[in-house]
Design goal:
291 residues; mainly alpha; Serine Threonine Protein Phosphatase 5, Tetratricopeptide repeat; 3 domains
């Protein structure tokens, strides 16, 4: 009976995920030592995530670095992240920039976006708006949502390139289709104002609503204004109050003032002077001239 119980325990131990993971770690380490960059990267992630072993960021860094030194793009990006965030190594923005650049030059689309941000903001390198624009463009063409939005902003404001409203509209639209709430907002503004396209307040309203529903306070404030004034939609003061409140609670100064005004005058909502003062003060704290 005792022998049977010991056999069952032995079988359970052998088949346990932990023992299997340990074997996997050992085998992966053996292969990694032979110099395969993909396996070295896999081993690094095992240490990074604690897969089959305890989390060890220093060992993860060691194997990521070995893989990256063999020009493995995924490892170059991950190494950049570790330098960027100070994981397993002292934070070093210049080294992060160097690693991102190596991966970006191999066509790694999201890293091209990261590199563009660093050139734009002067992180780990000197500010270079032209290079930022070029890298945003490369990433945007590959469908990177945030890069499409940032490229649109550059064209819209003429940063690192000449102002080109048609290109701004094109890239805002590309990004907005993918659900970027900021792109939806700015595209809505272009439709509202008639920039690079015939003014269409109904379509602008639709875009502001999409953006607002994702939590963009500027879109929420704009949507509230359109509901209040019947601009691009039917007048709906209850919806106006709802969206001004959403935006105000997120810190939008205009919405805070308008919400205060609604409480002050009893427009839409029951008059409440105390709440009116509260929202006026919130708006004033942010420098609102109206408040």
């Amino acid at each position: 009976m005792i022998q049977k119980s010991l056999l069952i325990i032995l079988i359970a131990v052998i088949n346990s995920p932990f023992v299997f993971s340990q074997t996997t770690l050992s085998e992966t380490k053996k292969e990694a030592k032979q110099g395969n960059p993909e396996i070295q990267y896999k081993l690094a992630l095992m240490y990074y995530d604690g897969e089959g072993t305890v989390v060890n960021k220093k060992k993860a860094f060691k194997w990521i670095k070995k893989s990256a030194e063999q020009a493995y793009a995924k490892a170059q990006y991950k190494l950049g992240l570790m330098y960027d965030n100070g994981e397993g190594v002292k934070a070093d923005k210049e080294q992060a920039f160097y690693c991102y650049k190596k991966a970006a030059e191999q066509g790694y689309d999201y890293v091209q976006y990261k590199l563009a941000i660093m050139y734009r903001d002067g992180i780990g390198t000197l500010i270079n708006k032209n290079k930022a624009s070029n890298w945003f463009k490369q990433a945007a063409k590959k469908g990177v949502n945030v890069a499409q939005f940032e490229l649109a902003v550059l064209y819209h404001e003429g940063i690192g390139t000449s102002v080109d409203l048609e290109q701004a509209f094109y890239w805002y639209k590309k990004s907005a289709i993918q659900g970027n709430m900021y792109a939806q907002y700015y595209l809505g503004e272009m439709y509202y104002l008639g920039e690079a396209i015939q003014a269409d307040k109904v379509h602008a309203f639709f875009l502001f609503k999409e953006s607002a529903e994702q939590g963009n306070m500027f879109a929420q404030s704009k949507l509230a204004s359109m509901y209040y004034n019947g601009d691009g939609t039917a007048v709906n003061k209850e919806q106006s109050f709802f969206w001004y409140k959403k935006a105000a609670e997120q810190g939008d100064a205009v919405a805070q003032f308008e919400l205060g005004l609604m409480f002050d005058t009893g427009d839409v909502i029951q008059q409440n002077k105390q709440k009116a003062i509260y929202w006026y003060e919130k708006s004033s704290e942010q420098g609102s001239a109206d408040a």
